[in-house]
Amino acid sequence: MSIEDIIQGCKEGNRTCQDALVQKFAPGLLALCLRYTSDRELAKDALQECFINAFKYLYTFQGKGSFEGWLKRIAVTCTLTLHKKYHRVYFNEEGDADVNMIATIPDIYSTLGKEEIMSLLKELPESQYLVFNLYVIEGYVHGEIAEMLGINESTSRSALCKARTKLIELIKKQQEVFLVQSTFI
Q: Which of 57, 117, 136, 168 has its CA 20 to 30 A from that of 63?
C-alpha cells in the first residue's frame, strides 16, 4: 500500500491505515522528539500528541510538500509545547552576541561522525541547543523559532550565534584531545 493510499485511508477513518501510518513514521518521529527532550517519557507523550493532532488535522494536508515533513513539524511543535510545560528554558537576552561574526570551523569537524557531533551538541546550554536544532537541523527561520519558544527573533539569532561559537570551542577541545592522543600512539 502506498503512502498516498494510507493517507487517504486515514482520512476515511480506516484503522488499518492509521496503524500503518503510525508503524511507518513512529520510530523516526520518536527520535526527532528525543532531540528536543532528553526525557524519554516526555518524548513518547509528544509522539502520542503528534499522532492525535495528525489524525485530527489530516484533512488540512493537501498533498503539497512532504507528508513526512508535515508530520515532523507537528512532532516538533508537540515536543516543544510539552517540554515548555514541564521544563523552563532560560534565554539570556542581555549582551546579544555579534550575529554578524564569521565562525572559523576547525579542521577536525570534517572527521567527526554523526554521533560525535550529536554528543557535542548535547553539551550546549539547552536554550542554544533548541535554537541550533530548530534552525540548522529542522530548517525553521528565526521568526518561527521565536514564536515556538516564546522569545524575540533577536534572542533566537543571538542564541544561534552563541551556539555556533560554543560548538566551535567544543570542536577545538576535541581537536586538542585528538592531537594529544595521536602524539602518544
A: 136
